[in-house]
Design goal:
The protein has 502 residues and is an alpha/beta fold. It has 19 helices and 13 strands. It comes from Urochloa decumbens.
């Protein structure tokens, strides 16, 4: 993980002040862990900080902690800590992902308080704790940091539009009684494309679900933050950033710092250079292959998998499809590992004869592919994606347009923004959020993305965003300046705490 160039300026030579410490708390899932690790790397690269990455023992066995391979890529001034496991036996077996995560966060607060109270830079000494940075689920802990006199900044691992929609949730909860999916008018947020109520994050779609109340309460706690650090950049969300700055100056919300994009430069996982899909891509013409992957947690139903397969076959376009086990109950079933049903091979759920009929045109691989390397390959010309923000930024870094296929969490918000405001993505014309996207819609959307006029416009936008993303962290880039601004606030806080302790 990381970039080829130092993401922050090196402090001037001479006597340096003792390093202040930043504690970062990541919720489970690649969408949280990977950008949080990248934030830690950039924090310590700034030259005046050390950092501790914190995660939860409850989720470590599911691969949602900080893996040793990831930690090995980070500087020694970044350490890792794991909060002890807390009981979840009282939760129903079908509790939503968000309910499980937020319950762990809430029940881990005593252990987190102890960690924050005793935190110091690796090796001891230093300037004390400069900031506590939880992600959007960990914001429950902002009361602890305030109690301890430590500035708290929420790291939004997704985009500013998604954050703004979450901040608006308590107002929607207060002023409406119907399900959000039944709202008669779009939700209009300053600087953002209008959202249907049905496009708001998944846990908000059922007021009777405990996850709904968890999320509304969590959104209220965001206002305790001293600021938001957001994994986005000006060219991606210029209007939203400008509007949010006005709201912050007016005292409506804490300030937001657009410091992204944080995207991997190589995939995690072993033997990526030898993966057969890369060898297959080497044999394909430039920009001829559609890459199909729904992230580490996204899951299709059995029927939807069959329709997607038939649509890909009917389109006649080359494809590389990362196939995971289907689930007819949960679109995020792969997040904590889904059941394998009657087979240990996800390809066995594809239509009979599909793999044989499409041999030479397409390649279906089981469970995993080195996504960063795939997207960067010259043969890849499009990406069918769940619109998870990590995957989106990886597509931006590679200059690859998308076919938006959101499944859970805030992915529908992302899809609306990417398609209607940014122009990076197309959507299947049926937009069947609760139904099945038919094979005809799949074939038409794939063809439009790969060879149609709208697809050509999306490819041009992808090229523009790739250049803008690189410029955002240049010496005078907007994201670098935003990062330096928030780091400056942390230095001031650390200096005050150091004086108070002396």
């Amino acid at each position: 993980m990381g970039t080829d160039s130092d993401p922050a300026p090196t402090p001037a030579p001479g006597k340096q002040p003792p390093a202040a410490h930043v504690v970062l708390l990541a919720s489970p899932g690649a969408g949280h862990v990977l950008p949080m690790a990248e934030l830690a790397r950039r924090v310590v690269a700034h030259g005046e900080f050390t950092a501790t990455l914190v995660t939860y023992a409850n989720f470590s066995s599911a691969g949602h902690g900080f893996p040793s391979a990831l930690m090995a890529t980070l500087p020694p001034s970044v350490s890792a800590a794991v909060l002890p496991e807390v009981p979840l036996d009282d939760l129903p077996a079908d509790a939503r992902i968000e309910t499980r995560i937020l319950t762990v966060v809430e029940r881990s607060l005593p252990n987190l308080r102890d960690l924050l109270a005793s935190s110091s830079p690796p090796g001891g000494g230093g300037g004390g704790v400069a900031a506590f940075v939880p992600d959007i689920f960990g914001a429950w802990a902002l009361e602890l940091s305030a109690e301890l006199g430590v500035p708290g900044y929420v790291f939004c691992t997704t985009n500013l539009m998604a954050l703004h929609s979450l901040l608006h949730t308590p107002e929607l909860d207060r002023t409406t009684t119907c399900e959000f999916g039944d709202l008669p008018e779009p939700v209009r947020l300053p600087g953002c494309v209008p959202l249907r109520g049905a496009d708001l994050v998944d846990p908000l779609q059922d007021r009777a679900d405990p996850a709904y109340h968890f999320l509304v309460d969590l959104a209220k706690r965001y206002l305790l933050a001293d600021g938001f650090i957001v994994n986005t950049f000006d060219a991606m969300e210029h209007e939203a950033i400008a509007a949010f700055e006005t709201l912050s100056r007016d005292g409506v919300y804490p300030p937001a710092y657009a410091v992204g994009p944080f995207a991997r430069t190589c995939s995690s996982g072993g033997q990526k250079a030898e993966h057969r899909c890369l060898r297959w891509l080497d044999e394909q013409p430039d920009r001829s292959v559609l890459y199909v992957c729904f992230g580490s947690g996204g899951t299709l139903s059995t029927e939807q998998m069959a329709e997607l397969a038939a649509g890909l076959e009917a389109s006649g376009h080359k494809f590389l499809w990362v196939v995971r086990f289907p689930s007819d109950k949960d679109r995020s079933a792969s997040f904590f590992g889904g059941g394998h049903g009657h087979s240990d091979d996800p390809l066995s759920y594809l239509p009979e004869g599909f793999v044989k009929r499409t041999r030479g045109v397409g390649l279906a691989v089981e469970e995993w592919a080195p996504q960063v390397e795939v997207l960067s390959h010259r043969a890849v010309g499009g990406f069918v994606s769940h619109c998870g923000w990590n995957s989106t930024l990886e597509a931006v870094a590679a200059g690859v347009p998308m076919l938006a296929w959101p499944l859970y969490a805030e992915q529908r918000v992302n899809a609306v923004m990417l398609a209607e405001r940014v122009g990076l993505a197309l959507r299947p014309r049926g937009d069947n959020d609760d139904g099945v996207v038919t094979r005809e819609e799949v074939a038409a959307a794939v063809t439009e993305l790969m060879v149609g006029e709208k697809g050509a416009a999306a490819r041009e936008k992808a090229r523009e965003l790739r250049e803008a993303a690189a410029e955002a962290w240049a010496l005078d880039g907007t994201s670098r300046k935003a990062f330096e601004a928030v780091a400056g606030e942390w230095k001031k806080a650390a200096a005050v705490r150091s004086r108070g302790a002396s």
